[in-house]
Design brief:
The chain is α/β, with parallel strands linked by helices. The chain has eight helices and 17 strands. It is globular, with a radius of gyration of 18 Å.
Length: about 270
């Protein structure tokens, strides 16, 4: 579950409620990893209170400030015993420089492979992909030099995820990332919006905003390889999908299914 950041933490808390439900509700054992944040203690305590109020059975903060801590067997066992991991926002390069290739990263992969849930918001969302956007410039003068990539956690291998998408004008940098890596789909997630990735290669959209999918699989002409980093490049044709609450996207066929089948996620009606 990738949240585009700035999710509602006060009123309806729809996305965080859905995460707790996916984690197991009263049977949930949630581990919060606030390593991306510059105020990890405060971030961890904030989400601990929220998840407890939403009925999670158990919530634990795992503070990881060094790679030595992220490689500790005891820390990896804590993740292995969880039903879900929640990774907070912050700075994605800080997150991946601490966790990348460590025992904790391996434990997160095993958790997800075994049916557990990974949820990341903002930086935690960007880190789900194998290629992660670290920084980038706003605007639509699309060129190679406007985006920097680094390895992510690699929980999904078919897409590059970006967050705070519409709010920070990030369509250009996502297209630039996909222009250099056309084998991937670009997934841009608005604030207070989530993309839920399933094992059957489908993605469901929840929340108040949009998820934009950039598909370069049909590109026949491009000069991204031959122009300088300061010059805009050419790429054609490019396909965009605009998804909202209730949309489902199928990665294998690269098509939208709307509305999604109600059997996948059942929400309780509010009183």
């Amino acid at each position: 579950m990738a949240i585009g950041g700035a999710e509602d933490k006060i009123k309806g808390r729809a996305l965080l409620t859905e995460f707790v439900r996916l984690a197991g509700s009263e049977d949930a054992r949630i581990v919060i990893i606030p390593s991306a944040s510059t105020i990890p203690k405060e971030r961890g305590e904030l989400y601990t209170g929220i998840f407890s109020e939403l009925g999670a059975g158990s919530v634990q903060i795992l503070q990881l400030a060094t790679r030595q801590q992220a490689n500790a067997a005891k820390a990896a066992r804590i993740v292995a015993d969880a039903t879900a991991v929640f990774v907070t926002g912050g700075i994605q390069l800080r997150l991946i420089s601490l966790l990348g290739g460590t025992a904790i990263a391996g434990a997160i992969h095993e958790l997800v492979a075994g049916g557990g849930v990974y949820c990341g918001t903002s930086a935690g969302a960007a880190a789900v992909s194998s290629h992660m956007i670290v920084t980038g410039r706003e605007g639509m003068k699309i060129r190679r030099g406007m985006v920097d990539l680094a390895p992510g956690l690699g929980l999904i291998s078919h897409a590059i995820v970006d967050q705070h998408f519409s709010q920070r004008g990030r369509l250009g940098r996502l297209i630039a990332a996909i222009g250099m890596n056309p084998q991937f789909l670009g997934i841009g997630i608005d604030e207070d919006t989530a993309a839920v990735f399933h094992a059957d290669s489908t993605m469901d959209v929840y929340g108040a905003g949009q998820v934009v999918v950039v598909d370069a699989s049909g590109v026949r002409s491009t000069d991204v390889h031959s122009v300088s980093k300061t010059r805009p490049f050419m790429m054609s044709p490019l396909q965009l999908h605009l998804l909202n609450e209730g949309s489902r996207f199928e990665f294998t066929r690269r098509r939208v299914i709307t509305p999604r089948k109600p059997a996948v996620v059942q929400r309780k009606a509010r009183a």
